[in-house]
Structure formats: C-alpha cells, structure tokens
Automatic annotation (TrEMBL):
UniProt cross-references to PANTHER family, sorted A to Z: FI02848P-RELATED, PROTEASE FAMILY M14 CARBOXYPEPTIDASE A,B
Protein name: Zinc carboxypeptidase
Species: Musca domestica
InterPro entries associated with the record: Peptidase_M14
SMART domains, alphabetized: Zn_pept (SM00631)
Active-site residues, as the UniProt record annotates them: E149 (proton donor/acceptor)
C-alpha cells in the first residue's frame, strides 16, 4: 500500500519516506494537487526530478523524442483513461486526438467485457495533479499521452484478489491494443511490432 519512492526526507524533526513520482515531473511541478510536506502521499519532492525513478522515465522520454508517438502510464485504481492536462482544467489544442485514442481503448474494453472506463482529461474527470508523467510526456513531444487507471478490488481498491489478475490483464491488454491500433491509424508511419 505504498505509492511513493523510498528516499528519506526530514520534516519538522521527523523522517518521512519518499516523494510521489507522479508529482515529481518538471512540468508545472509542485503546483495544484501536490504537496510540500514529505509526510503526505502527494509530496512533490524537494525539486522536480529529485527521484531516481522519475529521472529514468525522463531520460527514456528524451531518448525516444521524435520517435515515440504514444506514452502510456498504468496506475490503479478506478477504471479511467485520462489524458492531459492534469495541472489545469484547460485542454490542450489536440485534445480531440487524445480523446479519440482513449475512447478507442475504453470502447474496446466495454465491448469485450462490459467494464466501463471513464474517459477525459485528468483534471476534469478525476482530480488536479500537477507534475505528472503524462503531462510531462505530452509536453516533451509525445502526441498521445494517456494514463490508464486499472480496475480496483479488495478491501481498499488497491488490493484486488489474485483471482482477478487474469481478468484485469486481459481487459487491460484489450484496451492497450485498441489504443495502439488507433494511434497507428492516426500516425501511419509508426507501426509497433505487436499489431
């Protein structure tokens, strides 16, 4: 039940561990939906990219810049397909493209399993969260950037029983594959090998 990194931070004489990696990216870092307090789950870190985990993702995004078409980050839980922006209720100019790809995933999952996914911008569908990886990837040049929030289960929603793993993996793959197909339609020069 841990969502943060494990780096120790001292706050008011107390040691608290980790920053929320999904508040640690350097795009509207530490604005709305993030905290300066190391002892809370949405701690943005002492500076953008203070965490090794986010530096690795940043470096990979920059390595793939100009070649990568879609960034997909998978979280839990809530049955959402979200796209930028997370730092504001405003939408990027190309939001219809983002919406089309996300809806392709949600529609495919619904048709195959009956599971409903809510689709829209992070702030407008879920909550405001500045410094997130999907916003950063979109800002860094990936034309499609989506956060997929998986179904929940168990006592807290974050601990589904093992008996649900196959179902969740199957429907997640259905959505990912449908989104990838839609991306290939929109950007035909890129064709992932798994299609």
């Amino acid at each position: 039940m841990w969502r943060k990194t494990r780096k120790p931070y001292t706050y008011l004489g107390k040691t608290c561990y980790g920053a929320d990696p999904n508040r640690n990216f350097d795009f509207h870092w530490n604005e709305e939906g993030a905290s300066n307090n190391p002892c809370v789950d949405t701690y943005a870190g002492p500076k953008a990219f203070s965490e090794n985990e986010t530096m690795i993702v940043r470096d990979l995004l920059h390595f793939l810049k100009g070649r990568g078409v879609m960034y997909l980050t998978i979280h839990s839980y809530g049955n959402y397909l979200l796209y930028p922006w997370g730092w504001t209720a405003d939408l990027p100019e190309t939001w219809p493209d983002l919406d089309e790809v996300a809806r392709a995933g949600g529609d495919a999952i619904y048709e195959a399993t009956g599971t409903v996914y809510s689709v829209g911008s992070s702030t407008n569908v879920l909550y405001i969260a500045a410094g997130a990886s999907d916003d950063y990837a979109f800002y860094a040049g990936f034309p499609i950037s989506i956060t997929m929030e998986l179904p929940g289960g168990g006592l807290t929603g974050f601990d589904p029983p093992a008996s649900k793993i196959d179902q969740f993996v199957t429907e997640t793959w259905i959505g990912i594959r449908a989104m990838a197909h839609k991306v290939v339609e929109k950007y035909p020069t890129e064709r992932p090998e798994f299609l």
